[in-house]
Design brief:
The protein is 32% helix and 21% strand. With 217 residues, it is α/β, with parallel strands linked by helices.
Length: 217
C-alpha cells in the first residue's frame, strides 16, 4: 500500500475498483482507497507519469470548433462555469492583494475569458501546448506552457490562483500547493475545486459517481 500524500499513513481501506469511464483509453482497473488516518481518497497504486500520458488523449481539454455540437457544448460549459466565476470573483474582491488571476490547468481558456468579462486581469497556465494555443487564439487569453512548480513567474505575482480539478490529477499535490504559496501576493487567494467524496452523490452512486473521473483516468 502506498503512503497517503496528506498524512503519510500506509493504512487504507479499499473502496472500489474501477476502470477509465471518461476517455476509455485503457481497460486497466484502478483501486480507489480511503486513508484510515485522515480520510483522503486516492488511487492505489498511483499510475506513473508515463502511464498517465498514455491515458490522456491529446485533446482531453475542450477544443471548440464551428460545429453545432461544439457550440452547444460551449454553451453548457458557460452555464456550469458561472458558479465558478461568481465564487472566484467574490474571493478576489474580498482580498486587498493586487495582480492578475492565474488559472492553473486553464485548458482552452473559457473560464479565464469569463473572468476577464467580469473585470479581472487573467493569465492561464497549462502543460499542453495545444491547449494554451487555443486559449490565445479562441479567447485571446494569455497562456503559458509549464508546470506550476517551474512556471516563469516572479514570487508574489498574483492576487489569485485558481485550480479547478487539478490537484486530484497530481502525483504529489503538495508541490503545486507550495508553488502557489510562493506565487501569491500577500493576502492573495488560492481557490481550489476538487471532487467531494463526502458528498451525498458519492454515497448514493458509489462507483457510478462522475466525480471518480477525476481519479480514474
Amino acid at each position: 500500500m502506498s503512503q497517503c500524500s496528506m498524512c503519510g499513513s500506509d493504512r487504507a481501506t479499499l473502496l472500489l475498483r474501477q476502470t477509465d469511464r471518461l476517455y476509455r483509453t485503457t481497460t486497466k482497473e484502478f483501486g480507489v482507497v480511503r486513508c484510515q488516518q485522515c480520510g483522503l481518497i486516492r488511487l492505489n497504486p498511483q499510475p506513473t507519469p508515463d502511464e498517465l500520458r498514455q491515458y490522456y488523449p491529446e485533446n482531453y481539454w475542450f477544443a471548440p470548433d464551428r460545429s453545432v455540437v461544439a457550440r452547444l457544448e460551449e454553451m453548457y460549459r458557460r452555464t456550469v462555469l458561472q458558479g465558478h466565476v461568481r465564487f472566484v470573483a467574490r474571493a478576489l474582491r474580498g482580498s486587498p492583494a493586487r495582480g492578475p488571476l492565474l488559472d492553473v490547468g486553464c485548458g482552452g481558456g473559457l473560464f479565464l475569458a469569463m473572468m476577464r468579462r467580469a473585470g479581472f486581469n487573467v493569465v492561464g497556465l497549462d502543460n499542453s501546448r495545444e491547449a494554451a494555443a487555443v486559449a490565445w487564439r479562441h479567447h485571446q487569453v494569455p497562456a503559458v506552457v509549464a508546470d506550476l512548480d517551474r512556471a516563469p513567474f516572479r514570487p508574489g505575482s498574483f492576487a489569485g490562483i485558481a485550480m479547478s480539478h487539478v490537484l486530484e490529477h497530481l502525483p504529489d499535490p503538495a508541490v503545486y500547493l507550495s508553488a502557489a504559496h510562493r506565487l501569491l501576493a500577500p493576502e492573495g487567494r488560492l481557490v481550489i475545486f476538487v471532487p467531494n467524496a463526502a458528498s451525498l452523490q458519492f454515497a448514493l452512486l458509489g462507483k457510478r459517481w462522475n466525480g471518480l473521473d477525476g481519479w480514474v483516468e
